[in-house]
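Batch manifest, entry 17 of 40.
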Amino acid sequence: MSATDSTSALQDAIRSAAESGTRLAIVGGGSKAFYGHADGAATALSVGTHAGIVDYEPTEMVVTARAGTPLIVLEETLANEGQMLAFEPPHFGGGATLGGAVAAGLAGPRRAAGNAYYGAVRDFVLGAKIVDGRGQVLGFGGKVMKNVAGYDVARLIAGSMGTLGLILEVSLKVLPRPVATLTLKLHERDGARAIERLNAWGGRPLPITASAWRDGELSLRLEGASAAVASAAENLGGERVVAAEADAFWRGLRDQTDGFFSGPQALWRVSVPSNAVPLGLDGRTLIEWGGALRWIKTDAPAATVRQAALRAGGHATLFRESPASPKAAIPVFTPLAGPLARIHRELKAAFDPHGILNRGRLYPEF
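Output type: structure tokens
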């Protein structure tokens, strides 16, 4: 893949849009176009040509790359050095880019499982460069953890869905790939019992780096030193899964190519405390992150889903719409309380005073 710096062209496009009041929809590989609200009146602004790894020093475990860099290219580069993006970003398609992964702020199966907490996307962002709604290039953070100047702002970019600025470049902390990996399958008919077991294992020194329960089957991924993985497998029991099958399973969950995610029902992403009991909603449930993430396929009304999540101490996101739950009629993200809405509105005004960048992608009003 050729490295291309399109900073000047992207700045010019944003400045021109700001002058004319033209709303822009920032597009990378388009793999996450389904996520959030779409602005049908916006003009697409592609960052796909702004690509390439800018700096990578394996001994420092830091990589800096442009937003349009394909995730698959970045991950292959890291793998060649025995390293990885520990938050295991979903691809949702072959065109996924680094900028899209950071803007969406979504992490895969490895984020939280057992007592191993790798963290969210924002936990690995060391620095970022963006073009704001005025066409200015702004830089935050740095390339090492010691550089904390503006670090919180760099982290703020993760999950902002392009509403605060067009991501140009990101510096990320990377981690070594595990020496040994093994997936176990255990039979567990009851979801409540699966949650209890996952939380119990989370209090023990077990190298669990991913977990998933659905339809009476509980899957665990063990990673780490060979001796630790072998010992944990002996302790936990269950059926050992062939490596190729296991890789396909976790990738299917990460990218939602698994059959669970198909079908006409709405898909809700519900974040709750790991020990929250099953939510009691009609439909199918898949549990990840040691119990903290519940994927729910249901025809239940949005208010019912959100009330159930709230009672459990969490919140619900309409991840994929359905005819019965269209995004045009339902807020994708849980509506913000007054003080939080004010903070979001003020941040949007500071970074994008003309309101032209991915307007309404997170919340319709800004």
